[in-house]
Structure prediction request, 384 residues.
Amino acid sequence: MKRTAPNNYAAALNLPLAFALLVIVLGLAGLGVAWQAVHLKSPPSTSADSNSPPDGVMTGAYIDFGEKEDEVTLEKIEAFERLVGKHQAIIASSSFWGEQTFPTANLRLISRHGSLPLVFWSPWDRPYKEGHGPDKYSLTSIIAGAHDDYIDQWADAAREFGSPMVVSFANEMNGSWFPWSGVLYGGAKAAEGGGFQGPETFKAAWRHVVDRVRARGATNVKWVLHLMDFSVPNEDWNLAAHYYPGPDYVDWLGFSLYGAQFPSDDHWPDFVSCFDWPYEELKRLDATKPIMVCEWGVGEFPSKGDKGEWIRGAFRTMSDIAKYPNLKAAVFWNERWQNSAEEADEAAKENAGKYSDLRVNSSPGALRAYRECVAAPFFLDRPR
Prediction:
């Protein structure tokens, strides 16, 4: 979202056939290692932990689906896949509460395409502007049950859809730009029963929503707790641990990660410096949960840094399974937008009228880097 076990089949094979298969497998493995050496420069290691999930990261994308992020079309999906040279395991889109609908058509299209839908389910009212504080769908109104009818209808539709889907409810709550941000609900003030008001209010709303969806039988919905990589404000009360609603309420842990997004950004942080801490922060919450980079990308600003090299660094980092074994999915944010002076941030006037181009093809170098790196078999093209 833009912003301010082995089997016994081998026993049945005769020895010549087994030898032939071994030669083929070793040959393919050698090709894979050669590709990694050329393109990633630091090939992924294998994990010694037999209890860890299978190796590989599902690749996915959000593909500029319009102002409400819900104008999903097969044409856009296939065009992006041709561009990057790979089918997408995950396709992301949004479902804003102000629309009061369930995106059945979008999810069916994505599922029929052989991808896993990731839905940003945002308790947000029109006109969907950042930096304007709580609105009709506030966390407190959710906790009070004011929107139970809508939640139940959404859950019923999700159950009827039936296929697997991942839901990111009220994402980036540790930021300051969305109306469900913890800073807008008491922030660091002490909450009754312990903890801080901002995170405690968020957790109560999260549990309320998840409980109601599950009560309607929508067992096909999996939940990702989706934070921003670094908290804003970056204070103890606003860290991920305080927003964690507990292992029974979360299937995935995730975060958004962006490099420079705006013309006014005066620094060019590389991917790993934005990735390492939030990954470790989430892993400490629960080392058994898979981790997803729910959104990632960087703008095209040649005077600040090389986007192609930034992308190569991203894939090198994500392929390091020895260091980041819990990373199981990464969703690229493919969008270009013109910045407005109406945005509620200090740099709005400086950015007004200028573009933020996060698209994978914002330059030949960026596209070449993405295509070459995502081609590695380690980056999975189908849900698993």
Q: What stands out?
A: Residues 51-380 form a domain with the TIM Barrel fold (CATH 3.20.20.80). Residues 5-53 have pLDDT under 50 and may be disordered.
